[in-house]
Amino acid sequence: xxxxxxxxxxxxxxxxxxxxxxxxxxxxxxxxxxxxxxxxxxxxxxxxxxxxxxxxxxxxxxxxxxxxxxxxxxxxxxxxxxxxxxxxxxxxxxxxxxxxxxxxxxxxxxxxxxxxxxxxxxxxxxxxxxxxxxxxxxxxxxxxxxxxxxxxxxxxxxxxxxxxxxxxxxxxxxxxxxxxxxxxxxxxxxxxxxxxxxxxxxxxxxxxxxxxxxxxxxxxxxxxxxxxxxxxxxxxxxxxxxxxxxxxxxxxxxxxxxxxx
Length: 261
Description:
Blueprint: H1 2-39, E1 43-44, H2 50-62, E2 68-72, E3 79-85, E4 88-94, H3 95-100, H4 103-118, H5 121-148, H6 157-176, H7 181-194, H8 198-213, H9 220-225, H10 249-257
Helix pairs in contact: 1-5, 2-4, 4-7, 4-8, 5-6, 8-10
């Protein structure tokens, strides 16, 4: 953010970016989970809903406080956890995943997400989602400026072009910096909570095919939060697989299938 601010407005831009960066990190720490949930129009799950019951069972097995449970009204089968600590966490299931998986598989998914909570992966993931979203907004603004800027803006045109090109790359690098090994660890620890890896392995197999049938629509918001989900929410080509925020699904499934308890 400091780099972009300096590029856009010199020392004045740098000072503004510094204040904005502090505010952004403070807000994302305390409200990042609420922002992500609002982004997907998540609604609290009823107390008698099966995902609430399953999450309660798994949180007991994991030895962590019961997180808030939400349902996201989209057909793409997926789930994610967010928050800043085990005592301030939320887990969200899409309507697609609730309809696709059976109870044992949903329990495996909940265990994976609660492993992220217990491992404290969710804080950095939530803040990364917020920062990537802001940088994506900066890039969109720069592109808008290029298209509709005034003629007397020519002196800043090079800086705006650089921002429009560099900002999306920075946002992608931030997401990829969230190590893929954390997904492997969450798979393994989640399976250990339940003393069973079959449910999660089966869930991942169904999610892979389910996402191909009903991928999440590409957008700046979706792109900035993709790393939060248990599985990449997009249908990707072989080239795009190089930039995926998740490890290969077949490798995750193979590791789970070989686990013994």
